Amino acid sequence: MTNASATSTTPNLAPMFISHGSPMLVARQNTPAFDFFVGELGRHTDGVRAIVMISAHWQTKEPTISTAPHQETIHDFFGFPQPLYDLRYDVQGAPELAGKIANQLGIATDATRGLDHGAWMPMILARPNADIPIFQLSMLAHGSPADHYELGKKLRGLRDLGVLVIASGAMTHNLRVLDRNEGPIDPWAKEFTNWMLEKVNAHDIDALLNYRNLAPHAAMAHPEDDHLMPFYVALGAASDDFDADLIHNSYEFGNLAMTALRFYDHGEVKAAA
To answer: Which domain holds residue 228?
Structure first.
């Protein structure tokens, strides 16, 4: 992994994968992940025309883009403190741009869909002024890693439109074994995450697409595939000759990896951290 940094006068449009963590993300202000979302993620989004979010929490039969002019804040979680349900992220969509992208890609549109918590929670921290239009692209219900990788490839041209791709999921996601007491990090979570990062760094796409059979502790890290599928969209949206930048790597609740990656073109100047 590279961790170089430099300044650039042009918007950084390299696709990104982020782990959005628990809905409590916005309230956990003493964590490395909170600091990343408030600080570095905001800088990684400076100057872009719009952001398309691919969240683990919107799945449809076929890829669908939200063309809503105003992005409703969707509170798609249960059993959390009331202040989380009172939060609103008053951000605009980009209906004409989203519709143009849908036409170019030959995919469906949804004129009412807003932002689920996998999209608005990271962005309310990164861009609290809601100064960049945001819209979502759905994942494929029951789609495989290969399906989502191919979906990501279709997004490569979005750079030419000034649109940043952010895929929001989780590097590890097993809610049944979270440690609410926040003890030591479970070795299996580190081993799984490290394997994924090693394969990314080696450009071993075949192994990554077959993570379920090859990665250590795959079933423990992901009892279901949904939260890892955004990673494959970001991977597909990268160029074939990418450099992967590990922009964040911490853990919460004992095994919830908050990994974030950015996929630059080989030799592309990295964003300032």
So the answer is: 16-265
